[in-house]
Amino acid sequence: MLHTHLPWVAHNGVWPVGEEWLHQAFTGSWRRVLRVLETLAEHGYREVATLGVTPVLAAMLDDPYCLSEIHSWAGRWQLRAEELSARPGMRALAEHERREAVACLEDVASRWLTGGLSAVLRPLVDSGVVELLSGPATHPFQPLLTERFAAAQLSAGLADTQLRLGSRPAGIWAPECGYAPGMEDFYAAHGVTHFLVDGPAVRGDTGFGRPVGDSDVLAFARDLDISYRVWSSRTGYPGGASYRDFHTFDHASGFRPARVTGGAIPAEAKRPWDRRLAAAAVLRDAQDFVAAVVRRLTELRDQHGRPGLVVAAFDTELFGHWWYEGPEFLDAVLRALPQAGVQLSTLSGAASAGFVADRIDLPSSSWGAGKDWRVWDNDAVAELNDEIAHMQKRLFTVLDSRPDGAGRDPAADQLVREAFLLSSSDWAFMVSRDSAAGYARQRARQHAEKFTALADAIESGAGAEALAARLRAVDGPFGRLDARTC
After folding, report:
1. Domain spans of the chain?
2. For residue 418, which of 484, 377, 381, 468 has the smallest C-alpha distance?
């Protein structure tokens, strides 16, 4: 189970510095992970993984401007590698980076610039290699939203995914795995048949999908013991001594030249990254992961008297961006699991195969710290949450004041867009974790100011269309948001 999201528009840049994070995530992770899945598809694999893509990210990676900027960034990547080759002791690293940059440039030019993410992803979905999960348009923390606003977010997200991929996903990645009792009925009303929660929400009984409450909507829960073998910052595989160190930079080139070496070793004392050592570590850790999955499945069969399910769920960026060797690990694991007698499956495939147990009443939960809502609902973000609450009330006041039967209104559509982007869960996450908190506050404030200015213009009847046009020119498109559906 992989999930990727990025609740920012292409034209305004992304955290932490400008558009750098987006470009790194695309070139280092998303493109490489999709190539892994495509290669497996070429070898006849089916139902390999469930992949969640937040609609706003799908919009960015279909946007010609965004893709052109990624292509330019990859060109600069090649130039940086060629410059690095002249420095003593850097030739091997420079040649590796140059090869990777050239391959990325060729891939982007031949496929991505002509069709975007939709054209790359759709064959994997249509052939059944992956199950695609959609979700709310801009990845908001749903339990803190009003039901009407949450419905608008989810409806827009599902419609946008259908527009891009040709079919409406039955499952969603609930942003941050955020859940409040009763949300299953909300999901059912939108045609959602299954969603994700974290393991503690089902008290660790993660071996089966579970119908929630009185509904037929299934909750699948992440197996933490298995997932943390990869995900944990303290004990996970990416901290192995031979892997490329994420935190140590050669600042003149921007590349990462060192291997982890040891957790307590300062950057200047770390050993050079060696691809052969890293490749050997990938095979060892993949074997260890597969063995752990086999043991877990054996435990489930012995405990329940029938086969069970392991749901290992991660942010996609782990594979390649944060953990450089992650895509190779993923490829090795997906090939080794069937050889060990483990059947790969998507979530919908698991449901169809009967990996479903008794009904359950879920508590309020998330996959954040404490497994509750504290990351998105605390004193540090109280002002932001008040702003979002005020925005929701005013949004519907403005929209409900429009005459019955009114046609499409670009100003109202843009108002919805600003409201959606203000409500992204990532702003609160970044503030709560003090991770580029100033940037998060700035971006949230910008969307709030745009929303307020546009709402004022709509209500006064003065200059709303012109203002909306200027905002669209700065921010670029996002799907086909239609205020009439809110």
Report:
1. 2-134+169-369, 374-485
2. 468
| Phi, psi dihedrals of residue 283, rounded to the nearest 5° | -65, -40
For 13-58, the pLDDT digits (tens) are 233 344 688 899 999 999 999 999 999 999 999 999 999 999 999 9
Catalytic position from the list 82, 225, 315, 377: 315
Taking CA atoms, 169 is separated from 28, 165, 178, in Å, by 27, 9, 19
DSSP 297-317: HHHHHHHHSS-------EEGG
Q: How far is residue 24's CA from residue 255's CA, in Å, rounded to a whole number? A: 11
Contact call for residues 51 and 131 (beta carbons, < 8 A): yes
Structural element, H or E, at residue 52: strand 49-53
Helix axes 437-460, 464-475, angle to 10 degrees: 150
Residue with tokens 């809502």: 373
The domain defined by 374-485 carries CATH number 1.20.1430.10:
yes
> What predicted TM-score, i.e. pTM, was given to this entire model?
0.93
Active site residue 413: no
Residue found by looking up tokens 């782990």 in the block: 318
pLDDT tens-digit map of 183-215:
999 999 999 999 999 999 999 999 999 999 999
Q: Which one is catalytic: 19, 131, 176, 325?
A: 176
Provide the pairing of β-strand 210-211 with 130-133.
unpaired
Is 315 a known active-site residue? yes
Assigned superfamily of 2-134+169-369:
Glycoside hydrolase 38, N terminal domain (3.20.110.10)
Cα separation, 311 vs 295, whole angstroms: 14
Q: Is the dihedral of CA 446, 451, 454, 460 positive or negative?
A: negative
